[in-house]
Amino acid sequence: MALERTFAIIKPDAVEKNTIGAVLAKTEEAGFKVRGLRFTHLSRAVAEGFYAVHKARPFFGELVEFMTRGPVVVMVLEREDAVAQWRTLMGATDPKKADEGTLRKLFGANVGENATHGSDSLENAKIEIAYFFAASDVAPGV
Ligand code: ATP
Ligand code: MG
């Protein structure tokens, strides 16, 4: 298993519920090292660009509204097999279907408001990290 980095977001719903610290605690307990961290409020253009792959989906407008309604925390997370391990820690997209103890089960409300984002491949992790972080704002490493 290789040391990897993935890209994660603590979404507006989780920030609104004051669960940034709780998400970070679970993240660190699960063995992830935080290698980049930034608090930001996505503009419509940034959110639309980030989710461009979902542009044709019926929920795209709702998704962009949600992701821009309040601030978020964007993160670079590192551990062995980080992409898959972070998706396991997040749980299913729909919090109602997510396993007990997962971030979306604990902190999400529904399929739209599901607390966290995680990259779906190593290739996309690199693209997403570069979309949100200058190289100088990420710890050097893998
Ligand atoms: P993410 O990309 O945020 O980590 P994911 O990979 O589990 O989530 P995707 O299929 O990539 O799920 O969908 C991206 C996001 O779009 C979801 O996290 C969710 O916020 C929203 N979404 C997905 N399906 C729906 C839906 N049916 N209705 C409303 N919103 C949805
Ligand atoms: Mg996705």
Can you summarize this structure?
The chain is an alpha+beta fold and 142 residues long. The protein has helices spanning 12-16, 20-29, 44-50, 60-67, 82-90, 103-107, 122-132; strands spanning 3-10, 33-40, 72-80, 116-118.
CATH overall fold name: Alpha-Beta Plaits
Backbone structural class: alpha+beta
Domains counted in the coordinates: how many? 1
Distance between the termini: 14 Å
What do we call the CATH homologous superfamily?
Nucleoside diphosphate kinase-like domain
How helical, in percent, are the residues? 25-40%
Strand order of the largest sheet: 2-3-1-4
In the CATH hierarchy, what is the class? Alpha Beta
Radius of gyration, rounded? Answer: 14 Å
Indicate the low-confidence ranges by residue numbers.
none
Shape: globular
Ligand inventory reads: adenosine-5'-triphosphate, magnesium ion
Order of H and E elements: EHHEHHEHHEH
What does the largest sheet look like? Answer: 4 strands, antiparallel
Number of helices: 7
Mean pLDDT: 97
Judging by the overall fold, what is the CATH architecture?
2-Layer Sandwich
Instruction: Name the beta content range.
Output: 15-25%
Counting DSSP E segments of at least 2 residues, the number of strands comes to: 4
Question: So what's the oligomer here?
Answer: single chain
